[in-house]
């Protein structure tokens, strides 16, 4: 009886490395088919990975009450990456600008008072500026704006100039919603389209970016 117990115990002990090896091998095989394996076996049956952007607070409405007040901010756009971090973040410089009353198309929509754009120039990817005076725009960016003057976005690299008060027809989607025109019509220079747009929400007194148009330069 005692002999039988010892034999059973020995058998169990010798089979341990085999069981351990099988578990480890299963892990290697699973990682081959699904490298991140986040979520275990369930992840293998999940929908394909897609880039995701998380919501980010960028301003309080009290910071942008006067016409042409603006704020620079950095938006972190996240996308899936097969590494231990599981995502990579692209830092996108951007502007939010408060429009004067005369340029607000829908006075009942609180969001219509703002223009929110990426600062990455759609021509070749330089970071463009907000130019609030006509002399700087004419001398530094070779654009003589019509009267009455208002601020423009302008790129120092090849002098593209964008008008934040005028839309330009261009189709696309952001955060799953289709658009057919964007603010920031190109009024001078080689840029092929207006700046990339961002979707945003206003909740309480806070302004949040919810997503941004994808893509690289023009
Ligand atoms: S990169 Fe801006 S105009 Fe060329």
Major sheet summary line: 4 strands, antiparallel
Please, how many domains?
2
The CATH superfamily title of the largest domain: Rieske [2Fe-2S] iron-sulphur domain
List all distinct small molecules, including ions and cofactors, that are bound in this structure: FE2/S2 (inorganic) cluster
Name of the CATH architecture of the largest domain: 3-layer Sandwich
Beta percentage is: 35-45%
Give structural attributes.
single chain; 218 residues; alpha+beta; Rieske Iron-sulfur Protein; 2 domains; four-stranded antiparallel β-sheet; three-stranded antiparallel β-sheet; 10 strands; 36% strand; binds FE2/S2 (inorganic) cluster
Overview of this structure, please?
This protein has 218 residues and is an alpha+beta fold. The protein is 21% helix and 36% strand. The chain contains 3 helices and 10 strands. The strands form 3 sheets. The protein has a 4-stranded antiparallel beta sheet, with helices on one face. A 3-stranded antiparallel beta sheet has the order 1-10-9, with no helix packed on it. The N and C termini lie far apart (82 Å). The mean pLDDT is 85. The protein binds FE2/S2 (inorganic) cluster. FE2/S2 (inorganic) cluster binds at residues 121, 123-126, 155, 157-158, 160, 189-191.
């Amino acid at each position: 009886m005692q002999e039988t117990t010892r034999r059973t115990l020995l058998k169990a002990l010798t089979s341990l490395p085999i069981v351990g090896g099988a578990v480890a091998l299963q892990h290697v095989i699973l990682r081959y088919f699904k490298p991140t394996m986040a979520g275990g076996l369930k992840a293998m049956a999940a929908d394909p990975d897609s880039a995701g952007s998380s919501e980010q607070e960028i301003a309080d409405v009290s910071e942008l009450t006067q016409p042409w007040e603006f704020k620079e901010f950095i938006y972190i756009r996240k996308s899936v990456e097969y590494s231990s971090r599981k995502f990579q973040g692209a830092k996108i410089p951007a502007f939010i600008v408060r429009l004067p009353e005369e340029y607000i198309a829908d006075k009942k929509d609180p969001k219509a008072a703002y223009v929110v754009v990426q600062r990455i120039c759609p021509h070749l990817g330089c970071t463009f500026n907000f130019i609030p005076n006509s002399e700087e725009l004419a001398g530094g960016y070779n654009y003589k704006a019509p009267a009455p003057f208002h601020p423009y976005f302008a790129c120092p690299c090849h002098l593209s100039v964008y008008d934040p008060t005028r839309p330009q027809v261009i189709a696309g989607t952001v955060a799953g919603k289709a658009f057919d025109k964007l603010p920031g019509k190109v009024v001078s220079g080689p840029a092929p389209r207006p700046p990339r747009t961002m979707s945003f929400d206003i909740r309480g007194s806070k302004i949040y970016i919810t997503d941004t148009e994808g893509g690289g330069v023009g």
